[in-house]
Amino acid sequence: MSIPTTRAAESTAPSPRRLSEPLVALGLAAGPVVALGFTRFAYALLLPAMREQLGWSYAAAGMMNTANAIGYIIGAGTAAWWSRRLGARRVFVWSMLVSAVALLASGVSGSFAALSLFRFVGGLATAVTFVVGSALASRVHTGGRPARSAGLVGMYMAGVGIGVVVSGIVIPSALTAWGASGWQAGWLLMGLLALLAIGPAAMAARRVPEQPAAAATGDRVKLRFLTPTFAWYVLFGAGYVSYMTFVIALLHGQGMGTWSEAAFFIVLGAASALATLFVWGRVIGRLRGGRAPALVSAVVLLGVLPVLLGHGTVAAMASAVVFGASFMAGPTAVTVLARRMLPQHAWTYGIALLTVAFSVGQAVGPLISGLLSDSSGGIAKGLWLSVILLAVSGAVALLQRERVAVRSHEDRPVPSVESAPAESAPVR
After folding, report:
1. How far apart are CA 202 and CA 27, in angstroms?
2. Is 260 domain-assigned?
3. Which of 151-155, 278-282, 349-353, 388-392 shows the highest mean pLDDT?
4. Which of 182, 219, 288, 330 is the most buried (most CB within 10 A)?
5. 33-55 pLDDT, tens per residue?
6. Residue 420 falls inside a structural domain
7. How far apart are CA 360 and CA 299, in angstroms?
8. CA dihedral 212, 218, 222, 227 (to 10 degrees)
9. Rounded-to-integer distance, Cα 145 and Cα 416, Å
10. What SS3 state is found at 386?
11. For residues 10 and 225, what is the distance between their CA atoms, to the nearest angstrom?
12. Burial class (CB in 10 A: 0-12, 13-18, 19+), 355
């Protein structure tokens, strides 16, 4: 079936056939490099220096991430609307540009109010980038090979780990060169790198066909089947981001220096990129229902424990490897599950609402963890919240059952790089 003539200019975009599917997925991965690797997670490396120079409490530090998460909620909730109105490829690129500007702006002010605003704007823009990019990555391969589709989504998610590794190299260099005020240089360098990442992202996005406008309004009633996954994503988001926000501060308080903290962050990011690229896509592609999210929660929980039960480099690196290798498998599992259980025209809408649930958890988690960290138990007490939330999330995930998406005639696969057998007849 031919693509509808509406939005004809966008429907004439080159097919992924002209560029191999893995290269398209990796090009799109520049989006999460900026959205999560720089905008969200680099903050953990900058936090000790910012607290020292700006005199923040841990609750104030958590509020900064809460502002980012509130923006993320709004961005995720409006991503599908922006995608329908302006086109997914255009929105993907422009939201990356806004993220880069927010990063640059974060390096020019020490005002709590101004930094909160920049974190909010950055959260909003990066949510749009991540949601729309996830939907684009889901459409790189729409043939009859679910495991291949899951692997390509995993390649897209690997951008987060790549971004963590880059920030783990750049930010400590800035802190070493400029001391406590190096946190401003760190934000500026992240912003410049984000601008450079827009080029490959834009080239890759042009190779992914737009969703036809006539099919853009999703079959929303099917989202009720994903209720356990929504609940799991709230709990998982709150649990994992509390660790990511405060673990560097914990290690700093235990006596680790700047470059030891950087090594931890680099190992965490490298483990994330490698596991997401080569392990989780295949594993998630073979697990059905809520088993993949439950497995992710269990492994992430195991990754939190070493820094709570032990001290020193060995415990820190063990935590970096296990946690790093698993935390981005959560968004991968959700994207693959949405792809399986929703018709293609509802993918962006479904992923967006799931990301809103994720963002709610990310907004609440750091604030509560920060308040606990300011109490007599210190940061470790706040991080035990992560363990509890991740344990509960794993149990909730097992309630998810899988149903096959009902596909309309607009949802037939678009051409992909490889010739693949047609998908099996839809279940009505």
Report:
1. 8
2. yes
3. 388-392
4. 330
5. 999 889 888 888 888 889 888 88
6. no
7. 22
8. 110
9. 11
10. helix
11. 32
12. buried
How many separate helices (H) and strands (E) can be counted in the chain? Answer: 17, 0
Decide if 410 is inside a domain.
no
Q: What is the DSSP letter of 101?
A: H
Tell me the C-alpha distance between 37 and 171, whole Å: 12
> How would you write 274-321 as a 3-class SS string?
HHHHHHHHHHHHHCCCCHHHHHHHHHHHHHHHHHHHCCCHHHHHHHHH
User: Angle, nearest 10°, between helix axes 329-341 and 347-373?
Assistant: 150
2 inside domain: no
CB 146 within 8 A of CB 340: yes
Distance CA 404, CA 390 (A): 27
Rounded to a whole number of angstroms, the CA Rg of the chain reads 20
Q: Which residues contact 229 (CB under 8 A, 6 or more apart)?
A: 290, 293, 334, 337, 354, 397, 400
Q: Quick one: which of 386, 396, 388, 147 has its CA closest to 289?
A: 396
% of the chain residues with pLDDT over 90: 37
- Total structural domains in the chain? 1
For residue 336, the enclosing domain spans 20-211+224-403
Indicate the residue type of 94.
W
CA nearest neighbour of 89 among 24, 23, 1: 24
Query: What is the per-residue pLDDT for 425?
Result: 34
Nearest to 416 by CA among 2, 14, 121: 14
Here the CATH number for the domain that contains residue 128 is: 1.20.1250.20
